[in-house]
């Protein structure tokens, strides 16, 4: 990588102003990519109303972090605002590669930044490896039916990284934080945030859960999820679901796993009444261990689960729950 700026990592701010977990994963990937690419410099970029806290967190993962204070991000959609400020930094410092998470903000940022800088985008990468000619990104396409690899023209551009593709690991020592400024006005229309609604679900978050018990169409209805919830509680895990269950109104969208939901990476994924359609597989296939309970021995999930129990999920689930409760007391 011959550019002056090496590899940049966009540090995304969570709702409370802290660093988003996805950015720690992207930063970890950036360090690996730099090592494979011959020692390119890795720099974090944090732009926001009050970027100091998130910048200090990001500095645990990368050697250097640049912060830029932009009050407009407080009450406007961040993607376009951050893209304009970052575009000015890109013009001044000329990085080779810009990595960002493939979440809502990262996708907005990548598209706007590509338009403002003329750089290409490799979207939703599941892995990125470094070569002498630049990074090569791996993608799961056509609903996970095909794995492809793509490279950036001249090794320079933008890559968005899918959540839970990398396990975040802090660097051996913390990096430095430096506040910077850029010239110029924000010429593109800013989208105001008119309201913020917090999720009211009491369910445990599936994003970082080590154990997930998920239900699909085979659960049969909202009452069937009581067993799923009981199993998750007994195992100390969280409840997940397929799109079919969410679309039926049996469980909130925040628990949906799959191509149009969340991507998870638990140690154990217990799939109850889930056929294993490719759209769901995309969201949970990186689980360390997948155990399925299904009455159909020919269900697609049998092809990739580590273990499948052929039987009625209510009978199997209650038997498992009884065993778990007996062990604990």
Q: What's the name of the CATH homologous superfamily of the largest domain?
A: HUPs
Shape: elongated
CATH-defined architecture of the largest domain: 3-Layer(aba) Sandwich
User: Low-confidence runs (pLDDT<50, min 5 residues)?
Assistant: none
Q: Taking all residues together, what is the mean pLDDT?
A: 91
DSSP helix fraction:
25-40%
The major sheet is characterized as: 7 strands, parallel
Let me know the number of strands. 15
Order of helices and strands: EHEHEHEHEEEEEEEHEHEHEEH
Q: Which CATH first-tier class of the largest domain would you pick?
A: Alpha Beta
Distance between the termini: 59 Å
Q: Strand order within the widest sheet?
A: 5-9-4-1-2-3-10
Structural class: alpha/beta
Instruction: Round the Cα radius of gyration to an integer and report it.
Output: 22 Å
What count of domains describes the coordinates? 2
Number of helices, counting only DSSP H or I runs of 4 residues or more: 8
CATH topology of the largest domain: Rossmann fold
Our estimate of the beta-strand percent is: 15-25%
What is the fold's blueprint, element by element?
Elements: E1 7-10, H1 21-36, E2 42-48, H2 52-58, E3 64-69, H3 78-93, E4 97-101, H4 104-117, E5 121-125, E6 127-131, E7 134-141, E8 146-151, E9 157-161, E10 176-179, E11 211-215, H5 225-235, E12 238-241, H6 243-247, E13 268-272, H7 278-284, E14 289-294, E15 307-310, H8 313-328
Parallel strand pairs: 1-2, 1-4, 2-3, 3-10, 4-9, 5-9, 11-12, 11-13, 13-14, 14-15
Antiparallel strand pairs: 6-7, 7-8
Helix pairs in contact: 3-4, 5-8
